[in-house]
Amino acid sequence: MPYEVRRDFIGYGANPPDPQWPGGAKLAVNFVINYEEGSEPSIALGDGYTETGLTEANGARQVTKGRDLAAEGMFEYGSRVGFWRLTRLFQERGLPLTIFGCALALEQNPEACAAIRAAGYDVCSHGWRWVKHFELSEAEERDHIARAVASLENTIGEKPAGWYCRYGPSVNTRRLVVEHGGFLYDSDYYGEELPFWLTVEGKPQLVVPYSITNNDGKYAGWMGTSDQWFSYIRDAFDMLYAEGQAGRPKMMSVGLHQRLIGHPARAVGLQRVLDHMMQKQDVWITRRVDIARHWVATHPYPGKGLNE
Questions:
Q1: Ranges for the NodB homology domain (predicted)?
Q2: What is d(CA 52, CA 42) in angstroms, rounded to the nearest whole number?
Q3: Domains recognised in the chain with CATH numbers
Q4: Which of 102, 122, 114 is nearest to 258 (CA)?
């Protein structure tokens, strides 16, 4: 039966499975850096406009004709400065990271690619470019997936284990990801706090959900200070940690953007979050690929997907 996206309002319900995180951890935490700078819509890439999303312009197009050099600089800050500040915070603490990497963006910065390889960060494909896949035709989307995989294999040295679109996938994305093959999981879902299985065109597909809620995108909206961001993410962590201690362990994704939280006054909030989490026992701060591999080994495909 051809795969189609179906809504599921039940999920695991009142009795989610025990993830059995390594070491008996009460919570698995995955930090993601979204590496997008250099692949966003721009005049230089023939798109006819300059992207301003998740910048100080707060998504508003200030320049409606020609290049927006201010917005271009805001994006470039992310790869020139923000990347190095964020990775330093993790390296100083010996903590792992996942990179949601737009393939064309990583091509623009071989030094960052070398640092990613040296640090052992896993790279989940964030597409060939930072564009909205739900606006692409099926043929265009198939081409973007293939380009992204080939590019990341060249810049990072291996094919990506995971897939994640900008904001939201198209109705074709998951089917095309499975069609292409070679992916361990996708993260194109926001409605769960544990991984789960689907069946796509008769094949098992693991979904490792992501979060826009626990995300520095709040800095481009209603949130202004590192104190606000720290307390917001800390509270989410504390509740999930308490639930794990009570016998309901979950996972927590925290999304970061180099051109947002990479700025000094915001990075302080991340620094405080990391130090707060490290004070707690039984917390597994890990890469996304390790969560996926653990789930495959501990909760193998049951023969049908969660919503079948």
A1: 69-286
A2: 10
A3: 29-298 (3.20.20.370)
A4: 102
DSSP state of 141: H
145/183 Cα distance (integer angstroms): 11
Structure tokens at 52: 């301003």
Q: Lowest mean pLDDT: which of 36-40, 58-62, 170-174?
A: 58-62
CA 95 to CA 92: how far, in whole Å?
A: 8
- The helix/strand/coil state of 302 is coil
DSSP 165: -
Average pLDDT, the chain: 96
Q: Smallest Cα–Cα separation from 2: which of 208, 178, 252?
A: 178
Q: pTM for the full model? A: 0.96
pLDDT of residue 61: 79
Segment 261-303, tens digit of pLDDT: 999 999 999 999 999 999 999 999 999 999 999 999 999 999 8
Q: Which residue has the tokens 């805001």?
A: 74
Residue partners of 82: CB distance under 8 A and separation at least 6: 257, 258, 259, 260, 261, 262, 263
Q: Which of 36, 49, 290 is nearest to 165 (CA)?
A: 36
Give the pLDDT of residue 305: 65
